[in-house]
Here is the input.
Amino acid sequence: MTIDEIVKETLGRWADEARVPGGLADRALARRRRGRVRTFAVIAGATAAVVAAAVVVAPAVLPRRGDDTRIALAGNSLIVDGPAVALPQSGELSADSDAAPPTKLVATPEAAMYAYYVWDYEQLPDKRQRYRQTWYLYNPATATYEKTPWAVVDVADGGYVAVLEEQHARRVGVLGPDRQVKWVDLPHPASSVKWSPDGGKLLLTSYSANPHGQLEMSGTVVVHRSPATRTGFSVVDVKSGQVSFRPLTSVDGDLGANLWLYWSQDGSLIWETQSTPPSTKRFYDLEGRPRPAPPHVAETYQEAGLSPSGRSLMVDSPDQSAIVAVKDVASGTTTPLRPLAGHWIEQSVAWSGEDKVIVWACELEGTNNCRVSEFRNRLLLVDADGGQAVPLTGYMANSQEPGAWVPLFARR
Amino acid sequence: MDAAAERRFRDFVAARSPALMRLAFLLSGGDQHAAEDLLQIALAKTVARWHAVDEPEAYVRRVLYRQQISLWRRATRRREIAVAEPPEGVAQDATQAIHMKIVVRHALARLTPRQRAVLVLRYFEDLPEAEVAAVLGCSVGTVRSTAHRSLAKLRVLVPELAEPYTMLGEAMA
Here is the structure.
């Protein structure tokens, strides 16, 4: 028996273990209807329970009226004396082009990689596993990235750092320059934290359980993943520490754990990924009510999105000469980021000013292929017109395997 | 979508979901939950274009493949496709064939989505290289090199594949 025959036979027998769930057609049709006429929760604002200032109330005693009730509670101010990671507002390009992950600061004059995480699976009893992120934060005092104890980290422009202690956390903290943390309790445990663009608010996404919950294995096959559906989101006012929770559930069949919430570019709306055409993102206001997408941003899945001024948009390349392209939103013209300086550009990560983009790129082999694999890649700073490229890090072995690292950029 | 079109869609799903679910299951590396998500996304996309789709099964299959492969590009922060550690040896009474079946599955689950998709198209769907390239939207050369690398990785993950052995009772050449 050849390896071809073994693979063929193994695939055939393995496929026999697939179970066909019921209601596939119903769910697809319902999803389509929801896309056109999405109903939304009525927020009972008049009955919201606003707890007296400066009194932190345990979540268990908060008045609740089911999923339609907005819950608010006051906390302590999260204002800190300065950013946890203070970098010069502008500076020289700084790279660590042979290291992956980098140990020296990775930064452009406009943006900096303040943090990164390494993901893997934590082994639990009975061969169960749990997805885990280990976060590293840049420390200007030691001029290197240092391991942190936090389960989730986000960095605002200017180096302000928000943290969660666990993947399903009961409070959110902001790090001060002395690494002391100011905390605010949350009405519902949260699994993701995002700074608003102006640094004045925090957005936290909540789930019914840890969305990175345990995986149960039978031999080598995942037979069960602990279910977690999104329940809603909290917005924390950093200055006052007041927290408001709004229900915003993911519906049966949605990619629950993938439905993190993010801020829109101007901070007036939030969005989740939409996996069905025609739009890539669904927008809501801060009350959780559906809203139309701002111009252009819902045209792309590219992480870098709109440039700071909104002049350019990172999009998928319209032709096969490249994967990523830069679209001038005024004229509609696109510039594919073709192979450059021995690199095949794969994915945009963040803008650096208006004219440069930080991207993932593999080492070019031939005209349109990657040496070793497309998942062996490095961070690269490229001109938005495709002119020049500067390596920022070394190549990681495989971005899809445990041990891979993921950068977090913010403006300096 | 009018009532007749909806009925045709329901009939299509009822008739073809077992085959489509088998495919989604393999593309997801044996993750039943991820496979259901994947198939549902593909069916939702199909519904949205139902009036313009001439060959629904071919369309769903193409969406399944491309969706699975494209996930890595936009989900690096959210990746949760899971595999177990390799079995730490088999039970004393387990046969070598069962052991081999498990380790090959494990190795297939550890391939990247693109590598697994190429092997599924070549060996599960029995498609020639040119059709694999058409489904994935890439060149024949890319299909060939990806298949080559995928098999090479399988040999690394399952060293027994490079050696003579017996599988499922059949003598090996």
Summary: The two ends of chain A are 59 Å apart (CA to CA).
